[in-house]
Amino acid sequence: MADNFKRRLYILEMLKRKEDGVITIPEIIRRLSGKGFENIRNRTIERDLAQLSTEFAIGCDNSVRPFQWWWAGLESYDIPGMGRNSALSFKLSQQYLEPLLPHKSLKHLQPKFRQAKKVLSGKGKEKDRRWVNKIRVVSKALAQIQAVVSESVHDAVYEALYEEKMLQIDYLSRDDDELSQRRIHPLALIYRGITSELIICEDGQIKRFILNRIKKAKVQIQSVLIPEGFNLDHYIDENLGFPGSCELIEFKAWIDASVRQDIEETPLTKEQTIEEAGDGHIILTATLRETASLTAWILGMNEQIIVLEPEALKDKIIDLITGMVKNYQ
């Protein structure tokens, strides 16, 4: 009886939601053999699944051979059960991820979010409820509404990336008034705050397409051609600061004493150096890339920073501030 119970627990663990992949009895037997269950017959697993189906929402497609099985319920079960620390982690993840990721991407986490809510809000959980209400995830960036991406486009992009297939898309670029049909090689998908960007290769060039500007997408049978030497992390380091030059610069700036602690606690780079400049002010030096993000950070510091080097960046900031002043005159 103990073996039967353990075997059925393992079978439940193997069942995924249909969109994540079905499983067959031969595959279940193969996986069980890896857990020490030998000489299991098809009929035994059929009985196990029939018994489990009386208690749990398990789907089955018997129109194909072998039959395909999947988890069809909304609930999510964990062994051992979710504790309050895990529940809090999921609750905070929900607060942080919901403004960033599309609904389609969050769909698979919803059972965990519901389970976390149940753990933290059940009967006799008053202290847990007060505890979770004392913690918030707050973004430093201005809150904006996320651009809408159709579910069919998301599905096609995810499938193409997983299967490493080309995409046929209808794309509306920033400079065009009409949709253009394009065949592209999808390489990666990145989330930048409220914006999702598809990294692609087209005509031998690596480009970034804003996901919400893709109005239609269809997976092709042709395989993706990945440019030689393409590395996503390197690409992000070198290109996601657009429209800055992205060149490595020796950045040097005077920093007001009022934000010194912030600079020390959350450095721009691990190798940044700080020199005393009197009255608590400092001179910050760091080797980093000249990007739009750096420019935005400098402007956001207001009068608490003075760019000293490089001269080109200093002139750029002066021009931007002068232009802003003219707009208000």
Write the layout of secondary structure elements.
Layout: H1 2-14, H2 25-33, H3 42-53, E1 58-61, E2 68-71, H4 84-97, H5 103-106, H6 110-121, H7 126-132, H8 151-163, E3 165-171, E4 180-192, E5 195-202, E6 205-210, E7 214-223, H9 232-239, E8 248-255, H10 260-265, E9 273-276, E10 282-289, H11 292-300, E11 305-309, H12 311-327
Helix pairs in contact: 4-6
Q: Poorly predicted ranges (pLDDT <50, ≥5 residues)?
A: none
Give me the count of strands: 11
Mean pLDDT: 85
The radius of gyration over CA amounts to: 27 Å
Query: Helix content range of the residues, please?
Result: 25-40%
**How far do the termini sit from each other?**
84 Å
Succession of helices and strands: HHHEEHHHHHEEEEEHEHEEHEH
Which architecture name of the largest domain does CATH use? Roll
- Order of strands across the biggest sheet? 6-5-4-3-7
CATH topology of the largest domain: SH3 type barrels
Count of individual domains? 4
> Largest sheet, if any?
5 strands, antiparallel
- Summing up helix and strand content along with how strands pair, one would put the structural category as alpha+beta
Q: What portion of the residues fall into strands of 2 or more residues? A: 15-25%
The tally of helices reads 12
Shape designation = extended
* CATH level 1 class label of the largest domain: Mainly Beta
